[in-house]
Amino acid sequence: DIQMTQSPSSLSASVGDRVTITCRASQDIRNDLGWYQQKPGKAPKRLIYAASSLQSGVPSRFSGSGSGTEFTLTISSLQPEDFATYYCLQHTIYPYTFGQGTKLEIK
Amino acid sequence: QVQLVQSGAEVKKPGASVKVSCKASGYTFTSYYMHWVRQAPGQGLEWMGIINPSGGSTNYAQKFQDRVNMTRDTSTSTVYMELSSLRSEDTAVYYCARRSGDYALDYWGQGTLVTVSS
């Protein structure tokens, strides 16, 4: 199985900060990576697909980059509604695997 | 608009089985595969498997291979996930999620809490 190592596991930041979350794959997954945001008690919501494409309706402060084995999600200027948990997902081969998650908290 | 509506919460005893449903609307049901993902309390997301609603073929994570059965009913645009031999570690929220055009997961159901307790 492909392991997805996500870091950091938690992050404390302030409104207006720029934050970056990283996912590393244990083998080449091309750009078959998505980023998801999950708020407590809710289903995950896709933010980024194909590593760097913004899902329709998602604010442009979210961006993704990377290919192969290293990927990043960047939020350029944190807003209050962005405090949530973020997951990466590789979908190049079964079984699909998620990163462990990054909990983004208000400083 | 695409909607995935799941069945309600369940409480089961260890050793029992549970069957969760996911009713799709707003798109052509047989044109998109459906995933199942679960999330134990306070934990991350875990992919369980996928079903092709058109032909019924499935692909399961090895961890669940012996205990899970995913089926579909095209007449009602509903997919089902049945998990047997339940144990306390199966307590989780179970989600269905549609496979997107790029083979990831785009639309998600609201989740179904399954509690396994004696």
Report on this model:
The complex is a heterodimer of chains A (107) and B (118). Chain A has 107 residues and is mostly beta strands. Helices cover 0% and strands 50% of the residues of chain A. Chain A contains no helices and eleven strands. In chain A, strands 2, 4, 5, 6, 9, 10 and 11 form a seven-stranded mixed β-sheet that branches. A four-stranded antiparallel β-sheet of chain A has the order 1-3-8-7, with no helix packed on it. The relative contact order of chain A is 0.34. Chain B has 118 residues and is mainly beta. Chain B is 0% helix and 51% strand. Chain B has strands at 3-6, 10-12, 18-25, 34-39, 45-51, 58-60, 68-73, 78-83, 92-99, 105-108, 112-116. In chain B, strands 2, 4, 5, 6, 9, 10 and 11 form a seven-stranded mixed β-sheet that branches. In chain B, strands 1-3-8-7 form a four-stranded antiparallel β-sheet, with no helix packed on it. Chain B is globular. The mean pLDDT of chain B is 97. The interface between A and B is medium-sized, with 22 and 22 residues.
Which short descriptors sum up this protein?
A: 107 residues; mainly beta; seven-stranded mixed beta sheet; 0% helix; 50% strand; B: 118 residues
Q: Can you lay out the helices and strands and say which pair or pack?
A:
The complex is a heterodimer of chains A (107) and B (118).
Chain A: E1 4-7, E2 10-13, E3 19-25, E4 33-38, E5 45-49, E6 53-54, E7 62-67, E8 70-75, E9 85-90, E10 97-98, E11 102-106
Parallel strand pairs in A: 2-11
Antiparallel strand pairs in A: 1-3, 3-8, 4-5, 4-9, 5-6, 7-8, 9-10, 9-11
Chain B: E1 3-6, E2 10-12, E3 18-25, E4 34-39, E5 45-51, E6 58-60, E7 68-73, E8 78-83, E9 92-99, E10 105-108, E11 112-116
Parallel strand pairs in B: 2-11
Antiparallel strand pairs in B: 1-3, 3-8, 4-5, 4-9, 5-6, 7-8, 9-10, 9-11
